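User: Could you check the structure of this?
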Amino acid sequence: MSKPSSGYSPQHRLSAWFVHLFTASGAILGLFTLFMTFRGEYITAFWLMGAAIVIDSIDGTMARFIGVKQVVPQIDGALLDNIVDYLNYVITPAFFILASNILPPHWELLGASIIVLASAYQFTQADAKTHDNFFKGFPSYWNLVVFYLFIGHLTVWVNFTIIITLAILIFVPMKYVYLTRLDNVTSNKFLKMLLILATIAYAIATLGLLISYPDSNTLCVIVSWAFAVIYIVISLYRTFIPISAWEKARQKKE
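Assistant: Sure, the predicted structure tokens are below.
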């Protein structure tokens, strides 16, 4: 039984409120992203999207470490996180589509609307994040999608096809790896560390692509796409072959 929030020290309660403030600051980044996109400063908009991803990547770990749910029970941190995520992962990239020229003329509104509607379904599913810490269906990484469509210089119709395909995959109950919750991906600590290092390498490569734009960095492209392939392969593997009860038991002993 958790103790009431009044039983925690002022420093502990302050730390918990700071985590909520840290999560909520992602909404400010989302607002700035919309503003930069409106002004046509697309690269700046992508930097802001990246900063929002960083916040989203670490605020959950901070919340679990501090025990925010017990210390500040009157605030629904999961709801706050979902609100901010819907803004940064769905609304800002959808607006980016409307403001840029990555989709066919007169088809931008349809593409953006499909993203917003399909993702609304994905975000409101009770098991959008499964009990074993995976995402169910394509996890609405639309900020990353529009980044690749923007720097990839593909044709507008190829871009439109990619968006429609990913929107459909939201409704396909495949498991996608939750990169900060790897316990049900593998029980092997070495493999976990490799995945963490691969994720860091991917983040560095993505930054490299952003820094070098409009030029292309071959190494960054290879690392970025290699990670995307690895991510899909592992997600498919764990969709059809979940981690075994034996592996879970061994993990607990370790």
